[in-house]
Write a structure and sequence with these properties.
The chain has 240 residues and is an alpha+beta fold. The protein has two domains: 88 residues, no CATH class; 106 residues, Cytidine Deaminase, domain 2 (3-Layer(aba) Sandwich), CATH 3.40.140.10. It contains nine helices and five strands; from the N terminus they run H-H-H-H-H-H-H-E-E-H-E-H-E-E. It starts with 17 loop residues before the first helix and ends in a 9-residue tail after the last strand.
Length: 240
Amino acid sequence: MGLIALPLEMPGAEAPPGHLGHRARMRQRLLTAGPEALADYELLEMVLFLALPRQDTKPIARALIARFGSFANVIAAPAAELCQVDGVKEAGAAALKTVQAAALRLVRAELLDRPLLNSWERLLEYLAASLARARVEEVHVLFLDARNRLIADEVQGRGTVNHGPLYPREVVRRALELQATALILVHNHPSGDPTPSRADLEMTAEVKAAAAVFDILLHDHLIIGNGRQLSFRREGLLGA
């Protein structure tokens, strides 16, 4: 007795929800045409549907773009603000922040095991990605070894929209712990304008003097704005 072919769709069977077919088409487009074939909100959809498999993530993605303006602004937004958008929930916020962390690690990987002073453009890309969209001032210290390779990038202070604390004694103590021989100071200006303030100039001079006591060199102080950066060394602000 031969086999009987059954119809592909049994009578009365429910068709899959429309957003599931949409997801399959988006996956195929990503794999065949690459990420440039997807709009910002579509990339967000794909991230979110991994975290929210039972939800239609298209309206959530559009709401995120409407609130924050771009894919980059969305993944850089604080988790608490992401959770304020209907449907995102903790799982969605965690997925978006994971994308940000992965992006930063990819850029940072280009800096490891090579002298930072010879990879200046890469360094600026990394710092812009990590700091340009921060809502408050963050002060980072890049600790370098004798070959100017990155030992650590550490946050030494977080502050308000126009002030970030930094304590020279703590910077030097940490440099000695890491056996660092050079430093690069970095902080952001949430206003977007990288022009240094009087406090920035004074703090830089204090760190430079404290580090010099232990033969630790301050290579530069970088201020990161929105699409703009300022180098103390290039501007002649480090002193003799």
